[in-house]
Amino acid sequence: MAAPEKKLKIAIMGAKGYPYVYGGYDTMIKELGERLVARGVQVRVYNHRALFADRPRFVNGIECIYTPAIESKSLTQLTHTFFSMIHACFSDVDVIFVVNSGNGPFGLISKLFGKPTAINVDGLEWLRPKWKGLGSKYFFWASKLATKFYDQVINDSDEMRRVYLELFKADSKVIAYGANPREAVESKPIEKWNLASQGYLLIVGRLVPDNNADLIIEGFLKSDSQRKLVIVGDVPFEDAWANRLKNLKDERLLFTGYVTDPNELAALYSHCYAYFHGHEFGGTNPAMLKALGYGCAILALDTPFNQEMLQYGKHGWYFEKNPESLKEIVEKAESGPEKMNELRLIARSGLTQKYNWDYVTEQYLEVFFSLMKN
């Protein structure tokens, strides 16, 4: 009698954990991890211990390991991955999957142990305004090391693959981030903010400089729009830049802070007149995918990444990085309700197969199996 085939065992690390959903990487681990389990893969996720009061060993079939970290603004994430990598290398996992280019140096540990690895490197972290000086240099260096120490580098857009080829002379596999489109979302949840369907424009994202909320707000306030501008998001720490924005006094501005209820967030997306996307330094952006999935008319900063996601103007309009361009696009949108409606009607068709979570999972599985065989 033949021995049963060994199950593929994957360790995932580099984000906050499972089922904690806070950012893009956490969402990816949830969507990918649950689908891998459904396909018979053994999945282990390394959770940031301090974030979990309850620590069950298994959740929805996913094994959760709660590793510590040195708790500080710049060291938490890196030290958490370092301890997780050590633990995984001494375990029986077949492949280690790491997210975040900042974890690039830790691939040396897995290399010394002979463990196959893949890393999803995300965006141009070294260009983000929050990483100045040494922080910027570290992320550039770490991203370069990721191409040396990991067996497979994964990027989430063709444009990001081009950047890595140009800067680091390293090819990568493109696997996009997935989306969960939803139709027919009721408007009742937005009534808590006294909002009406299509009576507002929307920004969703952390209040950090590289998402350009300041630029969007300034341009919007220069316009003659009578709608509100709703800003969803915040930062999880005291920040002078974010506080300056939140202290702006204008009856057309509404800062909601974080919106954690998924039905409220879905309603805010689904019933906006237009969605602003000012994210500057990423590949496939989860907030943009949500906007497409909820059928938004999208007004996006003109970057190569946003051009790629919106199929070079098919699924949105672009603005330049100056307040006057913002003012113009707001007034153009206000004067063209039928054009905005056309963008809403075709938005979900922009979520091509590459943004389907099941397809994304199949691509990751191919990578994991190929690494295990090598």
From TrEMBL:
Sample GO molecular function, one term: glycosyltransferase activity
Superkingdom assignment: Bacteria
Key words of the record: Transferase
Segments passing through the bilayer: none
Domain DUF1972: 10-179
Transferase in keyword set: yes
All residue ranges annotated as the Glycosyl transferase family domain in the record: 197-344
Pfam families per the UniProt record, alphabetical: DUF1972 (PF09314), Glycos_transf_1 (PF00534)
Entry protein name: Glycosyltransferase involved in cell wall bisynthesis
Organism field: Algoriphagus alkaliphilus
